[in-house]
Amino acid sequence: MKKKNLQLILVLILFSGFNLKKIKYFTYPKYFPKPVYNFKNNFLDSNKIKLGRFLFYDPILSSNNTISCASCHSPYNAFSHSDHALSHGINDQIGTRNAPALFNLAWQKDFMWDGAVKHLDFQPLSPISHPKEMNENFKNIILKLSKSKFYKKWYFKSFGDSIISGERTLKALSQFQITLVSTNSKYDRVKKGNEIFNLKEKKGYEIFLKKCNSCHREPLFSNYQFSKNGLPIDKTLNDYGRVVITKNPEDSLSFKIPSLRNLSYSSPYMHDGRFKTLHEVINHYNFDLYKNRNISPELMSFIPLNNKETVDLISFLKTLNDSSFIYNTKSKFPKELILNLK
Length: 342
What we know:
By secondary structure, the chain is mostly helical. It folds into two domains: 39-181, Cytochrome c-like domain (Cytochrome Bc1 Complex, Chain D, domain 2), CATH 1.10.760; 186-321, Cytochrome Bc1 Complex, Chain D, domain 2 (Orthogonal Bundle), CATH 1.10.760.10. The chain has helices at 2-18, 46-57, 69-72, 125-129, 138-146, 149-159, 166-178, 186-191, 199-211, 243-246, 278-288, 307-317, 323-326, 336-341, and strands at 20-23, 26-29, 226-227, 255-256. The protein has a two-stranded antiparallel ribbon. A hairpin with a 2-residue loop joins β1 and β2. α2 (46-57) runs antiparallel to α6 (149-159), α2 (46-57) crosses α7 and α9 packs across α12 (307-317). The longest helix is centred in the first third of the chain and has 17 residues, at 2-18. The radius of gyration is 21 Å and the shape is globular.
């Protein structure tokens, strides 16, 4: 019996290995596509990842040392925020968009709701320089970091010397964010053959494949393209989305398609946080989609869901919640930073 148990354990270990693809410090399931991030230009390193984690949680990156990346991207909300629709910055100023969740970034080519940033390594420049968010520049950031013995030590451990530069800072931030991988929801465990959907979840999955998969393509649950989903413009914000970047009128009111993973943690929804619940989101597609004719072609043939279908779909969407990601201690506020902040 003991020999058989040992053999079973060995088989399970081998089987789990066959289901994973690995880059050093970065693991993902085999049913995931190949990441688009070029790791050759920024080799993952445990010290750089940790440095990036310190920087992510440190308000030193803002002009008045009160706002960190984590201020708008809380780990308990899948690295988004939940207590307000729009991001809040220095001096309690209100931004113009909802802070998107941060996970599975290695599979994304464009960043920000309008795709204004084309590479993860440069994405932090936008919130850091935004006057209503962190309102800082890298000249001042480097000066502040250079005065810190704590950071001099960690830049030395990460790069072999204590020179602090904007490029190194950005690459360290990328390294930490790259490790924010969410692949252990019930959906993932079903894909790996470790669990099965209940009846409602199974029916919801079938509805999802028919109604939602063209934009929110599994297993990432987004194609990370841009779409016009019929939301009327908020006349206070006057946010026309991607057209501001491309200058192409066809991109008016087009926004990046978010992943459906971890929805229970990352409300409110949409680029301006106008919807607080999944029912409100689905009701938009059921009843309000066609009130605005400016919608993408893939939505033209959308047939509204009845009440039972809505319940089943939400049951499936909840299988995309990854509690192990939310409570992963390796991505939480680092205790070592506490003494440095005093």
